[in-house]
Amino acid sequence: MLAYLEGRTSGRLRAEREGLSALDARELSFRTWGSTIVNAAFAYTRPEGNRFNGPGRGAWYCAFEDMTAIAEVGFHRTRELRRIGVFEDEAVYQTYLADFIGRFRDARTENAKTALPPFLQPEPNVAYPAGQQLAERLRSLDPPARGLVYPSARRPGGTCLVAFHPQVVQDVRPGARWRFVWDGSPDFTVKQDVDG
Fold it and tell me: To 10 degrees, what angle do helices 11-18 and 2-9 make?
């Protein structure tokens, strides 16, 4: 009964079975370790989307180094806590290491000599619509772009990567675990979780 209930309520399982409005179920990863993690990244979306994906199709977001991933995750969790007006929270995040196949576009040169383009701006209300349009354009190329390497908006000098297609995310394996704590303010502390 629990398996049936999970199957009816899990966005990932529904996406694997039926797909999403902008994601065909045949694109998803199956029968490899980590496939559920990859599929979840593409199945669970926000109503407003994220920097390089709209509400109908997720993407795999990652960083080249843990400290950049921590800055990105911390920003987004703090943003959610701000929405509900409560800054009391504790969460453990598992990092995952992955390999990627194919050539990725590189947006790090976009801001080398000029002002940041809109899709790299730190403000979500500016960056997300521009980034979603860019991602849609890159995915519609022939051949489609695999993803994009871009500078972190949350950690100066940090580098992020977004994969547009589940199949390009390969060899997923666990990395470090990090414990985030919000103790009454938007500022959070983080330390490696060795107990988990």
Answer: 70
Q: What is the largest CA-CA distance in the chain?
A: 59
Rounded distance between C-alpha atoms, residue 87 and residue 45, angstroms: 23
The bridge status of strand 105-106 relative to strand 147-151 is parallel
Please give the distance of CA 133 from its chain centroid, rounded to a whole number. 17
Could you give the strand order of the β-sheet that contains 60-63, starting from the edge strand earlier in sequence? 60-63, 159-163, 147-151, 105-106
Q: Which spans in 114-168 are helix H?
A: 124-139
Average pLDDT value for the chain? 89
| pTM score | 0.85
C-beta neighbour count of 46 within 10 angstroms = 13
pLDDT tens-digit series, residues 60-102 = 999 999 999 999 999 999 999 999 999 999 999 999 999 999 9
Query: Do 64 and 159 touch, CB atoms closer than 8 A?
Result: yes
CA distance 44 to 58: 6
152 backbone dihedrals φ, ψ, rounded to 5°: -65, 135
The Cα 4–Cα 74 span in angstroms is: 34
* H-only helix segments in the chain: 2-9, 11-18, 35-43, 66-84, 124-139
Residue 30: what are its φ and ψ, rounded to 5°?
A: -140, 150
Beta-carbon neighbour count of residue 64 at 10 Å? 13
